[in-house]
Amino acid sequence: MLKTKLWAFALVLGSPFAYAADCSFDLKGTDAMTYTDAAGKPVAEIVVPASCTDFTINLEHTGKMPKAGMGHNVVIAKSSDVKAISAAGVKAGVKGDYLPAGDKRVVAASKMVGGGEKTSAKVSVAAIKAGGYDFFCSFPGHEVKMHGKLTVK
């Protein structure tokens, strides 16, 4: 009941946060470099239920562009590490999913996908429970627009 009320409250206020009803969330990535929910609304925060052991973000690239030109992934890391991970990922290129190999700052990450493709990233809720974690796209320049907070409640 509380989850339903929080979700309805967010919709009424036009809030860009999304309360996950279960232990996963469906996120869309577009050719316009945005993350949206199923209704096409921007997502700036995903609220993860504290009752979950693991949480999965399912990403669908709803655009048409290939991953080499407009690829998207979803990466989970501490907010303070996002820019450094993105900068280091440039060297890995599209074949390395724009992520530094073995980077311990990356808590979870999906593969890079192009238009029409789907992927997912699974994270332990215990790993992000302390707070201060973001989700973002590591394709060069995308993290500026394609990022949000992960909050456990």
Plain-language structure description:
This protein is of the alpha/beta class. The chain has one domain (2-152): Immunoglobulin-like (Sandwich). It contains 4 helices and 10 strands. The chain starts with a helix and ends with a strand.
What is the H/E order? HEEEEEHEHEEHEE
Outline, from the CA principal axes?
globular
Fraction in beta strands: 25-35%
CATH superfamily: Cupredoxins -  blue copper proteins
With helices defined by DSSP (H or I, 4 residues minimum), what is the helix count? 4
CATH topology: the name is Immunoglobulin-like
Indicate the radius of gyration in whole angstroms.
15 Å
How many strand elements?
10
Helix content: 10-25%
Corresponding CATH architecture: Sandwich
Task: Give a short overview.
The chain is of the alpha/beta class and 153 residues long.
Task: Give short descriptive properties of this protein.
single chain; Immunoglobulin-like; 6-stranded mixed beta sheet; 4 helices; 10 strands; 18% helix; disordered N terminus
Chart the SSEs and their pairings.
Elements: H1 2-13, E1 17-19, E2 24-29, E3 35-36, E4 45-48, E5 54-61, H2 67-70, E6 75-78, H3 82-89, E7 106-109, E8 118-124, H4 125-128, E9 133-136, E10 147-152
Parallel strand pairs: 1-4, 2-5, 4-10
Antiparallel strand pairs: 2-3, 5-8, 6-7, 6-9, 9-10
